Amino acid sequence: MAVPIIKKVEVNEFTYELKDIGSESTIGIPIYEPGATRVSSQMAIRIHTDTDVVGEYVGGSKTEYSALPMFIGSTLGRNILARETIYNDAKQALRQHARMGMSQVDMALWDAAGKYFETPIYQLLGEYRTSFPAYASTYVGDDHPGGLSSPEAYADFAEQCYDIGYRAYKIHPWQDASLDKQIAVVEEVGKRVGDKMDLMLDPFCAYKTFGDAVKVGRACDEWGYYWYEDPFKDGGVSAFAHRKLREIIKTPLLQLEHQRGLEPHMDFILADGTDFVRIDQDYDGGITGVMKIAHASEGLGLDVEPHGPGASRRHCMAAMRNSNFYELGLVHPKCQNFVHAPIYLDGYNDDLDAIDENGHVQVSDKPGMGLELDWKYIESHTIDHNVYE
User: Fold this and answer.
1) Are 193 and 160 in contact (CB under 8 A)?
2) Neighbours of 342 (CB within 10 A)
3) How many domains does the chain have?
4) Of 110, 270, 293, 336, which residue is the least packed, with the fewest Cβ within 10 Å?
5) Is 374 in the same domain as 317?
6) Where residue 51 sits, what CATH number does that domain have?
């Protein structure tokens, strides 16, 4: 049977509304805000072929897709299984543009390949497991009653997550709070659930100085945190700074969310800048790029941890040994996951209740990514549409 040939690539930007979610005042990230309505957008890509096989992916930012015109023409006329060639050609074409856009194309190609072979992606990669533990990954802190407005509120929510079935919990603290308050949330959550949950802290580069990162890191040491992630305002990119931090504190660091692709990951790892290795299918070259990082890290004895939820993350975790937790987030006691667009016809979700009785999520056994997307909804809410053929 002839392998399908790429004939057209179609991209939709569509909107959806989220209730009780606003924008944090410092850098605009989603935050709990009672009564607010946030209009968010997502991107969807379809790779059409000369057969009825269509590769689909929803995810990535509009900025990512802005680079598509720089390389997408070279994919037309190629077969859908030529992922390695397309990956490497896109790396070259986008070498001065942060390799944006290649990840989303790669994942749509993996979806197409799975549909062509009538096989889920994780089995094409090599099945290792079909179920894995999730951690509850919080929204950033807010200042609303009933929200994540205090160290005690974070600890209350941690206990709620434990009762639901989670055995791991990650704090995204306030973007702009006193250092005393930042340390207090580490301590309060540690006191309440540190003896029964793996705890993680991700300040998302909010702390102002290396010294602040050290002080909070020592609090993490005291309460036995599982990892400490992107602590201060270098942006998570200095291998030297994080090597120095590793020498001062005991809590393992998780870095590399903000370095794109295989080679920068390996440079950072070999410079002793991290303990756990962050991977992201939307930043690191799609499924192809992430699996390269996972296997290279495995060769060095390190674990990789996927950033954010999504079907692509589940398929990769199902095909790798060296990862520990699925990030289920962002979650909050009063509002839904902010990536929850109403586009799935098969019940797929990454809300707080997505885990089973063991605190696990599962990978789909349907062909490709395993999702049934509501294209009627996507198209009726589209605000920008581009076609490359």
Assistant:
1) no
2) 12
3) 2
4) 270
5) no
6) 3.30.390.10
For the question of whether the overall pTM of this predicted structure is more than 0.85, the answer is yes
What is the per-residue pLDDT for 33?
95
**pLDDT value at residue 341:** 87
Q: Where are the beta strands (DSSP E) in 68-173?
A: 131-138, 168-171
SS3 54: strand
Contact 285, 106 (CB under 8 A): yes
* Whether residues 279 and 308 fall in one domain: yes
**What is d(CA 198, CA 217) in angstroms, rounded to the nearest whole number?**
16
Quickly count: other Cβ atoms within 10 Å of residue 181's Cβ: 13
CATH number for the domain that contains residue 130: 3.20.20.120
Tell me, yes or no, whether 100 and 133 share the same domain: no
Length reported for the chain: 389
pLDDT at residue 106, rounded to an integer: 98
> Domain span at residue 113?
6-119+368-388
Could you give the CA distance from residue 57 to residue 43 in angstroms, rounded to a whole number?
A: 8
Helix (H) or strand (E) holding 217: helix 210-222
